[in-house]
Amino acid sequence: MTGRGPERIDYADIQGDILRAYGNDYERTSYMLAHIEHAPGGRAWLGSLLGQVTNAEQWTGPKPETTLNVALTYAGLQALGVPDSVLATFSDEFREGMAARSQILGDIGESAPARWEAPLGTDRAHLLVTINALTTELLEEKLKTFRAGVQEAEGVTIVHEQHAQLLAGVREHFGYADGFAQPAIAGVTPHRTLGGGVPEKEDKWRGLALGEFILGYEDEDSLVDPLHRPPDAPAEPLGRSGTYMIYRKLSQDVALFRKTLRDAARLYEDGDEEKLAAKVAGRWRNGTPLISSPDAPDPSFNPKDLRGNAFRYLDTDADGARCPLGAHIRRANPRDALGWKGLDDSGLLSYRHRIIRRGMPYGPPLPVEATDAGGGEDRVDRGLIFVCFNASISRQFEGIQTQWINDGNALHLGHDKDFLLGDSTTTDKMTIQGSPPFFLSPQPAFVTTRGGEYLFVPGHAALHFLAGAADRRAA
Amino acid sequence: MSNQAGQAYAFMAITPILEGEEKKLRAYLDGFTQETSPFAGLPATHFARWVILPDWVDDPSQPRQDHLGSEYLIFTSNFDGPLGSYLDELCRRPEAQEIWSHCVGAPKPATGHLLKAYLLHNHIDTGFFVAAYPDASVEKVRASLALRERLSAFAVRSQGMDPATLQSAFNAEFGG
Amino acid sequence: MSEESPPTAPITATGTASRNVDGQAIAITVFSSVKWFGRLWLPLVFWYANHFPKSTGTLARLSFIHFARWTLVRRIPYNGPPQQKEKLSYPRLFFESNFNGGWEEYIDAFSHILTSGMKVFWGTSYGFPQPLPTGPFKAYIKRNELEASHFYSAYPQATTTMVLAALDLAPRLERFKEQTSGKTAEDFAQDWRKFLEETQGSL
User: Which residues pair with A447 in a beta bridge?
Assistant: First the structure.
């Protein structure tokens, strides 16, 4: 290459839970959305939180009892008095906001912003505080102090709260072990490289550039640029160490999902409900990838053992006989699947569309017996608070959503959408490749978007700047 | 130079727009929808477009700047040949007359074989033309797409049918 | 020449102005100014590509292009006054494509997969940055891209892979009908299973 050494990473400046997950010891997460009435009050309140914001440095002692992180919507940045000239340096899609991009994202019908939980998707959503806690008691304590702080602050109100908790077995509501496969970042999470990085020829993998996820650092493009031009980022000092965050409350119709699999399994010769569940997702419910275990889950599969994630698709499964071409994980992270045999570096069509996911389930689990009686809905809202981080919302999150989840063209599946997520009008059929193939019929959607936001996660210096930004606004 | 790939033809014409008429032309072109597009009435058309070229975009690294004396209308079409009959049909369309009447040198009225001659006079030969399905006409593409949809839907709904039901359902759907 | 630029249409999910979109089909129209040796080089390239179709194999395999073309515009035909006789200091390379997928994905693919192909076509254009990194290249294309005033597709909901799948299926179905005509229901059902197995990639 060019003889440049790796960039020094300022972990203390980057907020926590982005590069490395806080981890599953944190059983509880609360997402507190605040509205800021006027800038001085908002800044003062933000200033009062600064000392509590946890960063990306590795913990040397015991884990903190709680963690706290801050993110802002475009409206939130405006509310804090960020000048227009600086606001203009944020990405277009961030400035428009998730609600304005509902057509692009497939948030239509039941998932349309008009039906979202207020004030998600409106310009009253300003500042999101994410609090993780080891236990419920610790969470309650922290929330108490937090709310007191909001009371004391001037012109700050909590306009939306979302509480989430780990489910048993670190599953999500459809029953799948989730969240353990994440991108490998060069120099940061080298242990994830096999399987989490970019698949290269001769079975090699490499980690992704930090700048794919954190602004102010070289991304994949700048790495191949002789001039090493840095990627677009908001103006200093806001850009550096920051990232964009996607927050989506996804309601899951667990009863319908179970019923669908149960009904479909009657005609499925190749296996049972569990196998169908695996075919839809691309992994067995305990996390075993279909690619490595096409016939049965591996009971010894340990999500923490990342060797289990070191697979690719083309060499053993170009036709989808093991892991269907439209399976959820194959869509969300195609690895080498978009290329074709004989093309070196088949990861090239997917490697710039990776995201770091940090969501949490919400709502109580639906007891298994509830669906045995056939159709047992309990009208309780449950689902996933989907959270992810990336340097470019449009290229990464939206790219996945529009090209791979809500459509099938890139995967040679016509317009078939992801059977698990789909869009809210109807899922399309899903073909489970095999001898013979099996088809899952179109269904009403299992997942509905109840609200969401595009947010910016500032670095520490940027947070200080935002809190202390005094009278910079022209007017 | 190849204007053809299989039975598919690539045509391009570039014609100067009468001064002061660009806005009107733009507005007219903008008004077309999928249903009202003149190409909907030219069934040999796979993909076509009208693009207005206001002026050359010069790169800063060019030693000299190049400017056009007027705005130009670019017309390209990817269609099932042959060229002659396609242009004949195109030049019969009232929209074609309306559009090219805004261009310098167009016949008055801009229709029929005179319009065709005008377009041929202003055509630019293609350098390299690539077609993903060079031997499939529009009709064949559309028919195949419709059939695929029906076949796909049938595959889903016939799942689990016993052989006799399957066979009669197939025959009912596809005539066998 | 018109003073005001036309209002730009909103950017769609596909990453380009809505006038460049018809259903699933996306139009891209680009002109670039060509250096003097492009006058010699490009006709050679065209000749080679036309005579050795295998040389453009990867382009075809990318399977999100319906139709695409490159043309070297050396002169603008003259129609008499009031048209000005256009004198081109530089020939212009015209590129048009009809494709699917997001604009960004499309350009990414070109940049990564057709890196040498890109240089062959655009290497003689002024200001052409290398295909990689994609950022400056995308910016280059955006600068030189024209927005269509009207773009039409005869089958707007169909992507290239769908068309290819459909064209593959149609004759297979015909053959299946022939082969199974008059067979017993049991045999038919068996043949149908086999048929599904063979065609599952196109459904």
Answer: A252
